Amino acid sequence: MPLKAVLEGDDRQIMLKAIGSKVDILGSGKGEAYYYLVSDLLENDLVLKMKDFTQHGDTSCFQHCLNVSYYNYKICRFFSLNARAAARAGLLHDLFLYDWHTYKPDKGERLHGFTHAETALKNAKENFYISDLESDMIGKHMFPLNITALPRYRETLIITFVDKYCGLLETVIPRMKKVGKKFRRTEEVRRSA
Ligand SMILES: [Fe+2]
Ligand SMILES: [Fe+2]
Questions:
Q1: Is-above-0.90 flag for pTM?
Q2: CA dihedral in degrees (6, 7, 13, 17; nearest 10)?
Q3: How far is the CA of 155 from the centre of ligand 1 (A)?
Q4: How far is the CA of 94 from the centre of ligand 1 (A)?
Q5: Alpha helix segments (H runs only) across the chain
Q6: Domains of the chain and CATH, by start
Q7: What would the pLDDT profile of 136-180 be if each residue is shown by its tens digit?
Q8: Omega before 144 cis (within 30°)?
């Protein structure tokens, strides 16, 4: 059943949000224009499969891709660049579909950080129509770690920054929340003593 249909059932409680954003992507209003560009991807089983794999800390690969996609879209739209490609490539940029924490490269194979962009691009091309621009964005999002994969478009350069920025948020925000929770609990105990 399509994701939207599931989420729009009688008991619709789930919201889809990018990290640090209040916009419900599945709701009407601010998230609608973005949702319209990626709805087919959000309802695709392969894309949803990314929920099974962890990217950073408590963040799934799906949520990470959604974060990158949403902010990539916002920034590219702000600069009048190709916001559609930004949203779609962002959602597919880490479509490698394995747990990279336990992944062991074969002999002679390079580490995950150097190979997963190519794997994601291959998976994306096998399952969706991918434009040249989207291909550049997915295949080169690990620049400058992958120094030979030089971005050809401004949108590609942007995704390299957005990807790292989201990775940072996904690592830092949950930790800050945990520290905040601990602090509040300590305060409550102190006040009630
Ligand atoms: Fe990546
Ligand atoms: Fe990523």
A1: no
A2: 140
A3: 15
A4: 5
A5: 3-7, 32-42, 45-48, 61-78, 83-92, 112-127, 132-139, 154-192
A6: 3-192 (1.10.3210)
A7: 999 999 999 999 999 999 999 999 999 999 999 999 887 888 888
A8: yes
